[in-house]
Amino acid sequence: MAVKIVKHTEGDSRTARAIPTITEFNEANISHYWDVNKVANRFWELAKDQYKSHDYTKRYDPERSEFYRDLCSAIDGMLKFDKGTWYRKHCKMERHHLDENVPQNVNMIDVLEMIFDRVAAGMARGGTIYPIKLPEDVLNQAIQNTVEMLKNEIEVVDDEHDES
């Protein structure tokens, strides 16, 4: 569902055709405030949809059984966990392991999921959070892809009652 935002040019020196009245100026600023909130809410809706499937390769077979097998082997000292079959598959199938595999359409939802995952896992499992270091080009690509993703979620209308 597209987020409808209202076209307002009066609140920006680059787009205003003339000096706005104080009323036009206030309306443009209030509209912008609500537009930012609508876009942010849409971003979080998209994020929540993605986060619902977080670590599905740990929760559903056949990957869950592979995870359990590799985990047990690692605890027994028979396997270096990050060299196991499940771990390599997990990193390819799950979008948030950006230090192992960067999806072509990486976005800020992926980056934030990686942060949330590392903080939650680190704090719950031992109180230590592994460092997160992403190359600048990955972060820049995530930003640009997020901009494009959000642009595709927006419909600009002439006024708030426009149903086009």
Q: In a nutshell, what does this entry contain?
A:
The protein is mostly helical and 164 residues long. It contains 6 helices and 2 strands, in the order βααααααβ.
Strand order of the largest sheet: 1-2
* Tally of DSSP helical segments: 6
General shape? elongated
Helix content: 40-55%
- Domain count: 3
- Strand-residue proportion: under 5%
**What radius of gyration results from the CA coordinates?**
22 Å
Distance between the termini: 13 Å
Number of strands: 2
The H/E string reads: EHHHHHHE
Instruction: Report low-confidence residues grouped into runs of 5 or more.
Output: none
Average pLDDT rating = 93
Which class do the helix and strand fractions yield?
mainly alpha
> How is the biggest beta sheet arranged?
2 strands, parallel
Which descriptors apply to this entry?
single chain; about 160 residues; mainly alpha; 3 domains; two-stranded parallel ribbon; 6 helices; about 55% helix; elongated
SSE arrangement:
Blueprint: E1 3-6, H1 22-51, H2 56-59, H3 63-75, H4 85-93, H5 108-125, H6 136-151, E2 154-157
Parallel strand pairs: 1-2
Helix pairs in contact: 3-4, 5-6
